[in-house]
Amino acid sequence: MNRSYTHDEPDNRDYLESMVQGVLGKALPRPEGPLKVTGRACYSAEYALDKCAEGVLVTAPLASGKVLQVHKESVLDMPGILAVIADSRLLVRSTLGEPVKRYDGSIDYWGHPVALVVAESFEQARDAAKHLRIDYEMDDLAEVICDPADPRIEWQPAKNPQQQGDLDRAMAEAAHAVDVTYTTGSHASAAMEPHAAIADWDGANLTLYAGLQMLRYNLPDVAEAAGLERENVRILAPYIGGGFGSKLGISPECGAAIIASMDLGRPVRVVMSRQQVFQTITRRPETVQRVRLAADRDGKLTGFGHSSRNTHLPGESFVEPVLQASRFLYAGHNRDLLEESAGIHLMQPGAVRAPGEAVGMQVLESALDELANQLGMDPVELRLRNIPDVHPVDGRPYSSRRQAETLEQGAAAFGWDGSDRTPCARREGEWWIGTGVAAAARANFYTVAKARVRLNADGSATVESDQTDIGTGSYAILGQVAGEMLGLDPSRVDVRLGDTRFPHGAGSGGSFGAASTSTAVYLACRDLREELCARLSCEDTDLTLKDGHAIVGNTRTALPDLLAGDAIESVGSSNPGKTREDYVQSTYGAFFAEVAVNAYTGETRVRRMLGSFGIGRVLNEMTARSQCQGGMVWGIGSALTEELVFDKRDGHLINCDFAEYHVPVHRDVPHLEVHFVEERDGAASPIQAKGVGELSVCGAAGAICNAIYHACGVRVRDFPMTPDKLLADLPDP
Amino acid sequence: MRPFAYQRAADIGTATRLSATDGTTAIAGGTNLLDLMKLQVETPATLVDINRLPLAAIEDMADGGLRIGALATNSATAADPRVRRDYPLLARAILAGASQQLRNKATTGGNLCQRTRCSYFTNIDQPCNKREPGTGCGALGGTNRNHAVLGASDLCIATYPGDMAVALYALDARVEIAREDHSRTVAVRDFHLLPGADPTRDNVLEAGEIITGVTLPPPVGGRQIYRKVRDRSSYAFALVSVAAALAMEEGRIARASLAFGGLAHKPWHDPRIDDLLTGQAPGDALFHAAADLLLENARGRGDNDFKIPLVRRTLLAVLREATGGAA
Question: Chain B residues contacting A, CB < 8 Å?
Answer without folding.
Answer: 1-3, 38-40, 117, 119, 123, 125-126, 138, 141-143, 145, 229-237, 239, 306, 309-310, 313-314, 316-317, 327
